[in-house]
Amino acid sequence: MTSRELLEILRGLASCNLVSADVVEVAPAYDHAEITSVAASHTAYELTTIMSRQIAEARAK
């Protein structure tokens, strides 16, 4: 799975009720090109954004 495909799947989860998330197996010391670190940060951002929107929508009701 590519990073683009992963982000597409995560964005598709926006309608699901997410209660927690975890990004694992990122070892920057072994990632000299920093590709894994960048993908992990984008993944964490997408998950945080989805959950933040869900909290905001729940409070607006």
UniProtKB/TrEMBL annotation:
Taxonomic superkingdom: Bacteria
Cell cycle listed as a keyword: no
GO MF annotation list: agmatinase activity; metal ion binding
Pfam family, one: Arginase
Keywords: Hydrolase, Metal-binding
GO BP, sorted A to Z: putrescine biosynthetic process from arginine, via agmatine
PROSITE patterns (UniProt xref): ARGINASE_2
Family classification: Belongs to the arginase family.
Official protein name in the record: Agmatinase
